[in-house]
Amino acid sequence: MLDTLDRALIHALHIDGRAPFSQIAVALDVSPQTVARRYRRLRDEASLRVVGLADPHRAGRTQWLVRLTAAAGSAQDLAHALARRPDTSWVKLTSGGTEIVAVIHTPTDDVAGNSLLLRDIPRTSNITAVSAHCLLHMYLGGPTNWRRSADTLSEEQQRILRAPEAADSAYVPVPRRLTDADADLLVALQKDGRASHAELAQATGWSPVTVARRLADLQAGEAVFFDVEVDTGLFGANTRALLWMSVSPAHLEHVATTLAGHDELAFVAATTGPTNLVAQALCRDPADLHHYLARRLGSLDAIHTLETSPVLQNVKAASPMITRPDRGRRPAPPLRARP
User: Fold this and answer.
1) H or E element at residue 93
2) Which of 24, 20, 32 is nearest to 160 (CA)?
3) Residue 120's pLDDT band (boundaries 50, 70, 90)?
4) Are 65 and 135 in contact (CB under 8 A)?
5) Contacts of 19 by beta carbon, 8 Å cutoff, 6+ apart
């Protein structure tokens, strides 16, 4: 389990993933050396990772939540093959280990060009069922953190870490759009959101000054945000489940915003399909999940149906590479088309 300083450091990184260790040290009232040492230990032992991600709308991307049912014995290989693609994130093995859930990112203005959804998956051997749900609106997730991973710092400590303009209630960010020229910068940030300006300059071919200026512009315009990946089991959340709900359209907004305020949930989004609301629950154990489903969700009459899919393994998170690869596992094969 994490101690108070570990949790404070993770909370600080949620506020500003690129904050210098010296600034975090001031907020936490410890030395910069202590912050650096704790950060390295959390990276090694808790799979901590800061990743820079593009806002899908500003990047001209549409997100699809895809559920695949695979033949017994092939699901893990297929999940790892999907995880290695640059256009996927949040690849999970669910239910009895024969279902794969993944987010697929497609160009909004060229859906017909998405080979993974239209050609590769339908023609892949051992996939027996496919359903795709377009993510219409995210109520919790993305730039909004799971509360139990960001509940340690006081308001004063948070103020030290926030940009001055963020503390001004009258401040309105000027929207920025990502362009093709930002592609190399985004790839580098997805691999390491705390990469230095010099490292980002090497990845992009820009000067460090240009990198700093463009990154500051994108952050201020909310085109890029920083997420913190960490093993949720260290927060006591050992039981994870995806919740697929059908809600009356007239009550969808109310139910979604209500769920976004639940500490047990890390993700809430409206989708297309027969189940029009999906969430991810992070609970202490199966009894805790049952209590949440029966007591809190059960009190919302507008939820007509509920399907619970236990998450057995997180194969990939938001970053472009598998975060916790199985050592000794043979390389995953590419998606194989049927003859």
Assistant:
1) strand 88-94
2) 24
3) confident
4) yes
5) 12, 13, 161
* pLDDT for the residue 187: 94
Q: Which amino acid, residue 260? A: A
**Please, are residues 244 and 278 in contact by the beta-carbon 8 Å criterion?**
yes
Q: Decide: 135 and 267 in contact? Cβ < 8 Å.
A: no
Token pair for 72: 């017994």
Non-local CB neighbours of 160 within 8 Å, separated by 6+ positions: 23, 26, 27
Task: Identify the pLDDT of residue 321.
Answer: 56
Contact by Cβ (8 Å): 141, 4: no
Provide the token pair at 159.
């103020």
Question: What pLDDT score was predicted for residue 119?
Answer: 76
In single-letter form, the type of residue at position 253 comes to E
Residue 83 has pLDDT above 50, yes or no: yes
Tokens of 55: 């806002």
Distance (Å, whole) CA 42 – CA 21: 14
Q: Helix (H, G, I), strand (E, B), or coil: what is residue 117?
A: helix
H or E element in which residue 191 lies: helix 183-191
From residue 127, alpha-carbon distances to 102, 210, 214, 245, 335 in Å are 14, 46, 42, 24, 10
Q: Report the distance separating Cα 254 and Cα 265, nearest Å.
A: 16
Retrieve residue 1's tokens: 């389990």
**CA-CA distance, 173 to 190, in Å (whole number)?**
23
Q: Yes or no: say if 322 and 80 are a contact pair by the CB < 8 Å rule.
A: yes
Q: Poorest-confidence range of 52-66, 98-112, 157-171, 174-188?
A: 157-171
**Dist CA 221 CA 194 (whole Å):** 19
* Chain center to CA of 201: 26
- Count the helices and strands in the chain (H runs, E runs): 11, 10
